[in-house]
Amino acid sequence: MEVDKRNNILAKPSGITLGQHRSDVVSEVSDICQIFISTCEKYKKLTGKDLAMRLSVSAKWHDNGKACKKWQEACRKDFHNYQLWKQKHPDNFFKEYSSEKRNEAGCHLRNVGLRHEFYSLDKAVTTNMPIPILAAIAAHHGKLGLGFEDKWMSNPSFKQFWNVFRKTSNDISEKENLTLVCDKLLEFDTIRGLLQFADHRASAKEDNEFVPKLSFFDYHFPFADKRGIQKLVEDNWDNEILLVRAPTGAGKTDASLLWASRQIAAHKADRLVIAMPTRFTANALSVNVASTLSDTGLYHSSAWYSKYSKVQNGEMDMTEALAQQKMAKLLATPITVCTIDHLLMSLTFTQENHHLICSNLANSCVVIDEADFYDDFTLANILFLLKVLHNWKVPVMIMSASLPESALQLYRKAGFNIERILEDKDSDRYKKCFNIRKQIEYDNIQDINYLLEYCIEKGNAIIYLNTVDKAIKVYKEVKDLVLKSGKDIPVILYHSRFTEKDKQHKENMLLDNLGRKAWGNGTAKGIAILTQIGEISINISSELMISEVCPIDRLMQRAGRLCRFDHSVGEMYVLIPYKDNSLYPAPYGSYSQSEKSWIPCKALLSTMDILKCGIYSAQDLVNILNKVYAEETIFSVKAQTNVKSLEQMFINNWLINPVEKWNDDDTHSNSWRSRDIGPQGTAFIIKPKCTHFYNYSEYMEFVLSYSISLPVYLLDKGRKEHRIDSNCRITIGSNEPIFINVIRDGFYTFDIGIEPVGGIKKTPEN
Length: 766
Known about the structure:
By secondary structure, the protein is α/β, with parallel strands linked by helices. It has 4 domains: 18-206, no CATH class; 228-422, Rossmann fold (3-Layer(aba) Sandwich), CATH 3.40.50.300; 432-628, P-loop containing nucleotide triphosphate hydrolases (Rossmann fold); 678-766, no CATH class. The longest helix has 29 residues, at 178-206.
């Protein structure tokens, strides 16, 4: 390889020299190894090698290919252009230059078409570096993938490395041995992921960008005494897996933090990852955790409006918020709260950052919270995740208020040795907590008007409906009844089809009116109308609850919001919905196209058969739970086929990324899905002021502010009814233009979200 011998070999068009950048990356590697103690120790046990030493070598060699003469000539031309601009803008830096002169900045390097990491490998050919280091160098810009095979094959020197990587990958994949793949992943990905992480952190600092500090998990129990479940978890912390059943409000969150503290102190993990069923539950938990552990990461598509809502009122810089979110995405924060989908998607290796996420996951302790929230389709995926975690010797805790005894058999299939479900035997689980007054069959809202009027008389109530459309209809009816009564009672509707900004406002309203503080100071008042997202995401309470019938595990979660703060006996009415003289179980069932009717799921029918009017304790509900879910989970053919695809991607893609690529928040690939739900689309409540977005991050800021997620079939119906305009064209960066869906004026409001399709008819002009 021809090398530029001149002094001050450049690493970037900004003028950063190769020597400086190399030193910066080595420094970041050193800092990472000092913080990620368990990672280094686990690597030593697995490979017998010193991780810090291997990372240091990879850091010193990863950019040496930039000394190639052609690369240097192009870089110097770009640097010259930057210097000319800098003369006119002395107080600005390369970041501002690249933003203002986006076509000019780095144009010569883009045009030269030379991959410096390939030349770095070529330069290292005589060093006898182990393959994991070579792979890390090859992949640190995401080019170790089948989509770049032509570039690798274009040069005999590069071709030999590609053939080595392909052979190494195939030799492991073909054995189809999950344990072997897991071991090789840890050996390769720990270097691969952490080198990229160190490189990005060093580059960001060189570009004067905000870079979050690396920090240790530092949790201090905030109360004088520990509760029963918290003591149990601490006493059994050394088990490879814990199954914990505790009612809502029993202190599960702090129990998980106490458990994590023991794992991290024993160097069994470097961090805590808490996986939640939905982004709404992740929001709520993150806020709760952050009150006692400030360095908390939250990752999902709506994270900016939960943890970083201060950005909206100017209390926090957006750049800082984005950087914090990126750290959480990589599971690089001391604690990260995310959805289960994020962990599952990382096992596909369809993105380069999945390798770092998996490396960090392998060196975490993992809590799967609200584990009862998943159907068999997603449970099959979670079971595979648990098999991987077991191979990586990751401590796991699974928590829920409604874990049946049959769950023991399910989770044993992952390879864990589980003796029992932990439960606080000395708690108030035998104390009566709510009274089911009546079970009422109904077909239309008028059938239950007397109950709605009772809610108004009571002054506080929570009403659970199983579908968004029914929740909207009940909300409108309650609003009318409150208006007629002349009483000042807030009525709050909360479901999934609001913008993230509006969801945050709704959550705050619910907490202000029915949260702990409101009950504590005697000001609690209001009627909350919720769908499933309000089952485990909002810490509110009422004396009265009306709930459509649902499987017992869901009903247990709903009942946990009855007299939540004073533990008195709450009052519940259970509604059994009918439509056209038939039970209407949506979404707890499946729709038969041949019979044109809904078929209820087994758990719903069993719950309806067992559930009677009367006063219930938490233990009574557990007894019903064990009867409803007495049988071990049997996975459907669809679920088995789907999870097999995930396993194959994990095994086949462990070293070389596939051609298929997906966005950050996708929960599927061509052959696999994390959940069995219909296709979803995005609709915006306003048109963008500017139809060109500089990059994907800029576009995502608009998405998070003004979008809602809708099933594709509703989008189609909305377009047919002229409620949604699909002709708005935008561009993102240098990509081809795309068309977005925009909800027309008048069809979305803060009160109800988007009007139900087939509801009040409006003309496009209105």
